[in-house]
User: Which sequence fits this backbone?
């Protein structure tokens, strides 16, 4: 299942995983550590309903793997609800540059196929990779190791690699127990992820 990270010369390259505390970003942490990259996580509170539970999960995941977790908060007069948040993944990548202005290496997104959103597509990765290249003079590359995988493939990877999905949280409503209705909950229910 693994692929080699493109355009990377050595394993000392630093990887900043945009760590939401969900299954996909947690799988990304495991993916890079498995290949012996220098991994850190970045959790961004941008006003999402689940921010407290996601931060708790991201903190537990980072502790499990023994990686540094950087946190950042951005405020907005708007609170985001369930469903697609247009511009979310682009914002997260650009926010990584704001939080870490001397960043070099890889910024990783846990996006995957089977989602109808532009910011989970190959076109998006290409477009944002171009922006990163321009802003950083080629010092930062975008990687989405699961871009061509569907959710079931990521879950299979997690089972195979003993990724601690029990530490993850994926409910767009931010409720406890999870709402069971949002797309993230439906994914977990379909795959029998507890």
Assistant:
């Amino acid at each position: 299942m693994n692929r080699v990270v493109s355009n990377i010369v050595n394993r000392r390259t630093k990887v900043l995983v945009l760590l939401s505390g969900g299954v996909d970003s947690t799988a990304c942490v495991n993916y890079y550590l498995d290949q012996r990259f220098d991994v850190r996580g970045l959790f961004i509170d941008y006003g999402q309903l689940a921010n407290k539970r996601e931060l708790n999960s991201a903190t537990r995941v980072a502790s499990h793997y023994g990686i540094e977790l950087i946190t950042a908060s951005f405020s907005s007069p708007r609170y985001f609800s369930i469903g697609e948040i247009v511009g979310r993944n682009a914002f997260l990548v650009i926010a990584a540059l704001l939080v870490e202005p001397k960043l070099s290496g890889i910024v990783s997104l846990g996006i995957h196929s089977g989602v109808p959103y532009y910011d989970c597509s190959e076109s998006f990765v290409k477009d944002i990779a171009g922006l990163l290249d321009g802003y950083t003079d080629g010092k930062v590359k975008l990687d989405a190791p699961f871009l061509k995988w569907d959710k079931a493939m990521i879950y299979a990877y997690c089972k195979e690699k003993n990724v601690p999905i029990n530490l993850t949280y994926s409910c767009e409503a931010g409720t406890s127990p999870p709402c069971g209705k949002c797309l993230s909950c439906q994914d977990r229910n379909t795959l029998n992820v507890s």
